[in-house]
Amino acid sequence: MKKLILAFTLSVAALLSATALAAGPSIPLDKANNDLSDKESLKKGFKTYLNYCLGCHQLQYQRYNRTFADLGIDDADGVENYMYTGDKVGDHITNNMSKKDAAKWFGTAPPDLTLEARLRSPDWIYTYLRSFYIDESRPFGVNNTVFKDVGMPHVLQGLQGVSTLEVSEVRGEDGKMHKVSTLSPAMGGSLTTEEYDVVIRDLTNFLEYVGEPNKLERKNIGYWVLVFLFFFFILTYFLKKEFWKDVH
Fold first, then answer.
1. Helices H, strands E: what count in the chain?
2. pLDDT for the residue 11
3. pTM over 0.85
4. Inter-CA distances, 35 with 25, 82, 130, 209, 245, Å
5. Out of 1.10.760.10, 1.10.3720.10, 3.40.50.300, 3.40.220.10, which CATH number does the structure's domain 28-213 have?
6. Average pLDDT over every residue of 31-49
7. How far is it, in rounded angstroms, from Cα 208 to Cα 6?
8. SS (H, E, C) 183-214
9. What are the residues whose beta carbons fall under 8 Å from the beta carbon of 165, sequence distance 6 or more?
């Protein structure tokens, strides 16, 4: 009995820890408003991932052929235009960077991102990728309001441009002065703010899909299960009345 209680306590503690980690920092997050049924968005997000993210971050639990099938990409087209690594269409989406070299360059090996959207949430990723700013004190010259002292360069800087962190003081409801940090509009990128937001939304959409490729299928099955349970409840109710009609 004691072992059972201990196991239950540890399970609850692990669940709470995972929930706290997934919640991320206590800052307002922008809504990604993803649409997993939008295959064109998923394709664009996939392409952005391959061009800007795969060099460092693997998707070691996701296969190319599964991605092609789900996104409506023909295998031949996928191999020619999307398959940057691997020898077979059934290979996982990995890169050739060794963890030892990565740790030397970045301080730690870049994480695999297959389950990142489930760990952090799509809104966290969407906000994070739009929250870099110039910080010359950091090794790569940038920092992030969502992930303080981030060890990652702003690989999408050419698209977004650069922002600066502006700190001002405002008087709060308690009458005291509080420091408020805001990001200046990004300058010098090849995309407008609106265009960049669309690119990041597509990328976030793709990462949410990768975290659970059968999410839409699971939801559709769930609706049919609810319909079945509804009719089964009605049948059970009338069956109960039939059994108990002669019971006084």
1. 10, 8
2. 46
3. no
4. 25, 21, 19, 9, 51
5. 1.10.760.10
6. 96
7. 34
8. ECCCEECCCCHHHHHHHHHHHHHHHHHHHCCC
9. 133, 134, 135, 143, 145, 181, 182, 183, 184
